[in-house]
Amino acid sequence: MKRLFLCENGAAAQKIADFFGENKVTGTYFSNEHDIFYPCPGHLLRLDKPVEINRKYKIFNRDYLPIIPDKWLHRPLSKPELKEELKKLHELLKEADEIVIAGSPSDDFHGRCNNIINYYNIAKPIRTIYLTGYDVYSLNALNSEPQLSFCAEAYLTKERLDWLFGVNASCSLSLSAGKPISISRVKMPILNLVYKRNAEIKNHNPITEYTLTVYFWQNKGLPIPALLVTDSPITDITVIRSIKNKVADANAKVESINDITIEIPAPQPFTLPELMTYAAHILKIPLQRIESTIWDLYYNGYISIYSKPAILKTQYLKSILENLMVAGDNNLLCLAKKALLSWPTDTHKNISGIIPTLQRVDFQELKQEQAVILKLISRRYLIGFYPSHKSIERTVTISCADELFEYKQIQTIQQGWKCSNIGIDTIFKNILPGEELLPKGPLSIQEKVKAAPRAYTLATLYSALCNANLLAENRKLHYYNFGIGTDYNRLTIINDLIHDGYLKFKNNTLSLADSLNDIWPYLPEELLNTDYTVYCEYTLEQVRKGEITANEYIKQRVPYIKKLATQQLKPGYQIQHKLCPVCSKGYLVLKSSKQDKFWGCTNFPECKASFANVNSEPFIMACPECKTGYLKKRSKINEDFWCCSNYPACTYMASKLPNKKEE
Questions:
Q1: Which element (helix H / strand E) includes 280?
Q2: What is the enclosing helix (H) or strand (E) of 450?
Q3: How confident is residue 417, by pLDDT bands cut at 50, 70 and 90?
Q4: More confident of the two residues 131 and 603
Q5: DSSP 3-state helix, strand, coil percentages of the chain (rounded to 5)?
Q6: Sign of CA dihedral 162, 168, 173, 174
């Protein structure tokens, strides 16, 4: 029986091929007597465009909205090299007896593979294997039972949802604006984050806030530095000065002492977003290089990524620890020895995030960036087995001249994974409720100028997308641990926005493209805030868990799609261009020919539409005979005439048009 393994890339294909023994390189893939290991390329298929669903959608018309396909069909992308790649893959699919989709639990990878299989109606046994890594232990999953392909269903759902959102919102707002506007469910909130941040910087008004620190003295001669408590920041210097004068000679008393015991468990292994942002801060290199380095470690078998919690044997986890002890790094050796002192007695442990593997590692042989990141991962992994850190937070509330002051201190009572000293200082130990104090000073006023927020960098925008739920206007969404995009595609989305000209990346900061600034304030807020995108990511978990299908999910979203079809720009926007009624992509601009001026499409040469210049406006009139073409001005010797753009299919002709006076 011949098996076709669809792999994430060339490195993954080689690792899987090596796992099954000797193999040979055949063109762009690996093979042996029984198996083919094929690195599945990127996007080869796309959903049908509206005009491919129905020719009437060639012209933007609000009466046609919302556009909701009865059937969802794919077709190949137009690039010849991609068509050739698809053809080659089709031959391999026909040749195989069984298809194995093996890779990380990424919606995109599993979804693309399933789309190709369904496009060619391949009716063969299909196994889906989610790999957490490419070391020998993780690759043993290739011999396990297949897993349900809910990732592929989630990809299908997102693909259709994005199509519905983009097509209907883009059509509606393009008609409202008179020029093409491309709307994306995921990209619009990202662009809006950048726009709002830069607007905050531009309109920032520096505000100075004041606070007061007073040293209260006990009878035993011990000072207690306490901070003034206020309901809101004080921005008037005269107010803080009057408070200072008022408490200078007044008596004070300890009103209350509140102790809170805080227990902080050891941190879990890094998630992918945590590791990327932390490593970028440590290494001071672009985020793209950080991401590339992490995936190099992953595909070379040095790390495993558990995107969902997994129950692993503690004996296996201990073997990883012992492997790190002989990796040649003294710091990791010390951490491992301390971890053994508190090693769990349970036979299994719940693990999620990124951890090292059993693969032997010599940090001297790795590139510097790889070594640093692998050490960060290993250190976090080892600290995860340390005991909890316990401390007491004491808050002392002091009243003086009708004002309240607070003194806070944290003291460690059990040193766990955090490095801190155990001990109670004299203030912490000896202060008593109701004790009378004297504000003998010093009394000091501190001022802090509220600085403008910083413009987004790649790293800070990436971090904002990971925590976009906290930016939602609906506070209920703050409890959903979902951001914009997924761990696997957030950085790609940002890079696409830069590459496509929607974002400018200059001096390491991001800003909105100049072409978008004029229309952005007039776009409906509902399309721009993070709420709907975060909510979609949250509800997509139902699909990933197999609770509902893609069709059921899309059916639930139809009322919102219908609402999108009615969206228009806010009042006040001045329409500057007319949308091309032929291609609905470009807009009409005034051009000149040898004979006369005319209006042509900016999408030329893909769209060759042209319209006569009448009263400084494009003359657009549907052909009265065929109803689908447009009247165009033509010239003969000594006279002009009007004919249909569908000629020769339509032979309508007229010498003049009533009620239209040409310039």
A1: helix 272-283
A2: strand 443-450
A3: confident
A4: 131
A5: 40, 25, 35
A6: positive
Closest CA to 255 of 433, 393, 437: 433
Round to whole Å and give the CA distance between 372 and 363. 9
The Cα 297–Cα 134 span in angstroms is 9
Q: For 73, how many CA atoms within 13 A lie in the half-sphere containing its CB? A: 11
Distance CA 1, CA 15 (A): 21
Token pair of 338 as six digits: 């301390």
Strand order in the sheet with 223-228: 436-437, 252-264, 389-400, 403-414, 223-228, 207-217, 443-450
Backbone angles phi, psi at 640, to 5 degrees: -110, 155
List the one residue out of 598, 537, 562, 626 whose CA is nearest residue 55: 626
CA dist list (Å): 72 to 68, 151, 186: 10, 18, 21
**How do residues 120-165 score in pLDDT, each as one tens digit?**
999 999 999 999 999 999 999 998 887 777 899 999 999 999 999 9
| Distance from C-alpha of 143 to C-alpha of 387, rounded to nearest angstrom | 37
Query: pLDDT tens, 165-181?
Result: 999 998 888 777 766 67
pLDDT at 191: 96
What is the model's pTM? 0.82
Residue 124, token pair as written in the block:
């063969």
DSSP 126-158: EEEEE-SBSSHHHHGGGGS-----HHHHHHHHH
Q: What is the pLDDT of residue 426?
A: 46
For tokens 């726009």, the residue is 195
Tokens of 187: 């990209």
Q: Token pair of 35, please?
A: 């198996």
Handedness of CA 282, 287, 292, 298 (dihedral sign): positive
Inform me whether the pLDDT recorded for 303 exceeds 60: yes
Instruction: Give the dihedral sign, CA 488/490/495/497.
Output: positive
Task: Burial-class residue 586 by CB neighbours within 10 Å (0-12, 13-18, 19+).
Answer: buried
Please give the share of the chain, as a percent, with pLDDT higher than 70: 95
Q: Which pLDDT tens digit goes with each residue over 452-472?
A: 999 999 999 999 999 999 999
Least confident of 268-277, 430-439, 565-574: 430-439
Residue ranges in 445-602 assigned as alpha helix (H): 458-466, 490-499, 514-517, 525-528, 531-544, 550-564
> Rounded to an integer, what distance in angstroms lies between the CA atom of residue 137 and that of residue 15?
12
Check if the beta carbon of residue 220 is closer than 8 Å to that of residue 397: no
Asked if residue 171 lies in contact with residue 52, where contact means CB atoms within 8 angstroms, the answer is no
As a whole number, the mean pLDDT across the chain is 88
Q: How far apart are CA 26 and CA 357, in angstroms?
A: 30
Q: Where are the alpha helices (DSSP H) in 54-129?
A: 80-95, 107-119
Q: What does each C-alpha distance from 184 to 57, 361, 488, 527 come to in angstroms?
A: 19, 44, 18, 9
